[in-house]
Design goal:
Elements lengths: L2 H13 L13 H11 L5 H9 L2 H4 L4 H9 L4 H14 L13 H12 L4 H21 L1 H17 L5 H16 L1
Helix pairs in contact: 1-3, 2-3, 2-8, 3-6, 3-8, 5-6, 6-8, 8-9, 8-10, 9-10
């Protein structure tokens, strides 16, 4: 089993029985699609690994140390460190449970300020994440989709350090979805 297949299996186990919010799909389909989108633009194993793992810290009880222990068994230490660093960059900080006094707009604005500073690799994964989420939400919840699509379009206006071809593709798709 290659490294990415092992990371998919680890991530699938981490997400357990979770399903996607807007569909009956097992959660693992989302990080795999995000990774597959990234793979069209890069073959960097650290980026692809982080794409698969991008929601683990945010959405599961798995800790950074558990991810580190797992990755150290299949990657070189510097690859592990970079992969975890990217995953941490992609983990939302301004969440409702931690900041209950902030409304959605305030949390999203603070998160955007944080995201502006993340690495180009993390921004590339964020583009793929936005693309996958927007397509799914547009199909399953058209009303909320308009809010989410505008928020995502705003993020893309400010996150410009990632892969430029992927950025352009995601902007094109969002603009199409916003005019439907």
């Amino acid at each position: 089993m290659n490294i990415l297949d092992q990371i998919i299996a680890f991530t699938d186990h981490a997400h357990g029985d979770q399903l996607r919010k807007y569909s009956p799909e097992r959660y693992i389909v989302h990080p795999v699609r995000v990774m597959e989108t990234c793979r069209k633009y890069t073959d960097n194993v650290k980026v692809l690994a982080a794409a698969i793992l991008h929601d683990v810290l945010e959405d599961t009880p798995v800790t950074k140390e558990e991810i580190r222990n797992f990755l150290n068994g299949i990657m070189k230490p510097d690859q592990t460190d970079k992969t975890i660093s990217i995953v941490e960059e992609l983990t939302d900080v301004y969440i409702k449970s931690t900041y209950p006094n902030l409304n959605r707009r305030e949390r999203k604005n603070k998160e955007l300020e944080r995201l502006k500073k993340i690495s180009p690799e993390a921004q590339t994964i964020k583009y793929a994440d936005i693309l996958d989420n927007c397509i799914g939400i547009a199909e399953c919840d058209p009303e909320f989709a308009q809010v989410y699509l505008r928020e995502s379009r705003n993020i893309l206006e400010h996150l410009t350090k990632g892969d430029p071809a992927l950025h352009a593709e995601v902007v094109r798709v969002l603009d199409e979805l916003l005019t439907e």
